[in-house]
Amino acid sequence: MSSHPRETSSASRGDSRQHVPDGPSFVELFTPKFITVMREGYTLSNFKADAIAGLTVAIVALPLSMAIAIASGVGPDRGLYTAIIGGFLVSLLGGSRFQIGGPAGAFIVLVATTVSTQGIEGLILATLLSGILLAVVGFLQLGTFIKYIPYPVTVGFSAGIAVIIFASQIKDLFGLTLSGPEPSPIFEKLAALADAMPTFSVPSFLLAAATIVIIIGLREYRPRMPGLLIAVALAAVVTWAFDLPVDTIGTRFGGIPQTLPAPQLPTLSIDKIIAVLPAAIAFTLLGSIESLLSAVVADTMTGRRHRSNCELVAQGVANVGSALFGGFCVTGTIARTATNVRAGAYGPMAGILHSVFLLLFILLAAPLASFIPLAALAGVLATVAWNMVEKHAVATLLRASRGDAVVLTATFLLTVFRDLVEGIVVGFTLSALLFLHRMAQSVEVENAASVSLGTEDQSDVGEDRTLAPYDTSAASDPDVVVSRISGAFFFGAAASVGTTLDQIARRPKAYVIDFSAVPFLDSTAASTIESFVRKGHARGALISISGARPGVRRTLLLHGVRHPLVHFKANIDDAVADAHAAVRAIRAQEQAAQA
Fold it and tell me: Which stretches make up the STAS domain (predicted)?
């Protein structure tokens, strides 16, 4: 009986001719989960589970896709095109079993801004370029780096997006009529809405309020029922039955088409590409973060593992496909993906069927969409905005530490009052700086004779940190100084470590610096050691470095920390023994000279 090649390699570890691959091959990394599931054996019961889940997700996606499109400044039909084409391609080609692609609330502000400055053609071109960029990012295997986005940044960003979405729905929630275009900046928007309050529409407000109450009530008491669709359908029936004087999809957009448009390329020109490139980059950054976060949520719920770079390539293809059919940005959607998992989906077929069900709605029931009141869709997005704010996470982060609170607050405020990408970049930068500061504080210098850890500016230190001796035999000899550096030794800690070493230096005859607890050393730290070693060598002291790992030693050698300035020893015992022997020899020479 033959065994699997991996098993054979593992079983014969002693055979040097056998080779175990270090990781998955390029083909394995980019094999869609759809193919993986089919290879496992796809049964009729699996298809039934996926069909039920796909229908459930389609019921959620139908009103949500139209609401997001309208809030983004485009027609509801483009939201459906995005969900149908984008959702189909994400599930067919993606690296997650359960990811549902489509339009997302996080893109509302970016899409609306792009439409207002570049028009629909500019939006479609930006979506096309974003798709190409996403595919490139995926093929370059950069998706792994998305995991480095800190948690406070994602929480603050999501809360900021939620505020922006809610602010964008106030007009339709209250049925207001503005005298001009609705401003994008939050303060100007609120001022314009306040000026329009005399046009307040009671029917619109009651429809929106009823929609919100129905959604929340069904979620609380009948969570398995499609609350979004039921609320919107009831609002449409009431609007039609009582002929309410409110804006509907039919009155504002003329309804939605009953067919998909023919695919076509947007108008291409160098000037137009340059004009929309910043929007395309913003779509790429936000889309990669949103889709991979959604995939991680699905992994957490199911215990599966997604292929991040394969997922980004699929998102890229989906954005290109959406643009060709007149849609806009596609990304993985957390709420719809979670709904898919809870509905019992088995694999990517559920996402494919969700797109098929949405297509059937366009083909068979598009005229019914004309009666949907915009106030009801505004109510849907109001509940989406509320759910986007992770209330418990915000409260926890604000209490956790001052650093996390600063990152969260800065990301939130910049997202709301400045720019989405600026909020992410500044939040990430602050998080990185705080991380470097914490890492620098974790680096310690222990000495055989107790000393205080030095800093560049003593006035900033509330109290000295006294380091306990770890080698009492060395401490008994004042002419031998033994120090141990522990922690990742990098530029953030280089100055304080250098100051500490200088404080330790009492002009002894021998120094031993133990590097066995240093996993990493950068150029700045190596330069600090080189400076210390050179000064000690100039005074005639014997300097030894013990326990340096190969990578650490290589960096030190590259920066001039080499013989005859320093002697490298394998362990601390050998280094200390040599230091004592050298000091005894020096003393003997001194005594002989005196005699």
Answer: 470-579
Which of helix, strand or coil describes residue 458?
helix
193 & 97 share domain: yes
Query: Does residue 265 sit within a domain?
Result: yes
Please calculate the CA angle 157-232-105 and round it to the nearest 5 degrees: 15
Residues 483 and 550 in one domain: yes
Q: Residue 205, Cα to own-chain centre: how many angstroms?
A: 37
What is the DSSP-derived secondary structure letter of residue 481? E
Which residue from 333, 338, 353 is spatially nearest to 65, judged by alpha carbons? 333
- Is 505 within the bounds of a domain? yes
Residues 233 and 138 in one domain: yes
Distance CA 468, CA 465 (A): 10
Q: Distance between CA 435 and CA 448 in Å, rounded?
A: 30
Alpha-carbon gap, residue 208 to 238, rounded angstroms: 12
| Domain hosting residue 527, numbered range | 443-457+465-594
Coil/strand/helix, residue 469: coil
Q: Are strands 331-332 and 101-102 parallel, antiparallel or unpaired?
A: antiparallel
d(C-alpha 91, C-alpha 104), whole Å: 16
Same domain for 376 and 493:
no
Query: How far is Cα 104 from Cα 581, in angstroms, rounded to an integer?
Result: 71
For residue 39, count other CB atoms closer than 10 A to its CB: 9
- Average the pLDDT over 145-168 and give the result: 84
Residue 105 is given by DSSP the state: G
Q: How many domains are contained in the chain?
A: 2
Using CA atoms, how far apart are residues 392 and 583, in angstroms rounded to an integer? Answer: 62
How confident is residue 450, by pLDDT bands cut at 50, 70 and 90? very low
The answer to whether the pTM exceeds 0.70 is: yes
Q: What is the pLDDT of residue 20?
A: 45
Residue 227 lies in a domain: yes
CA distances from 591 to 265, 479, 577, 587, 588 (A): 91, 15, 21, 6, 5
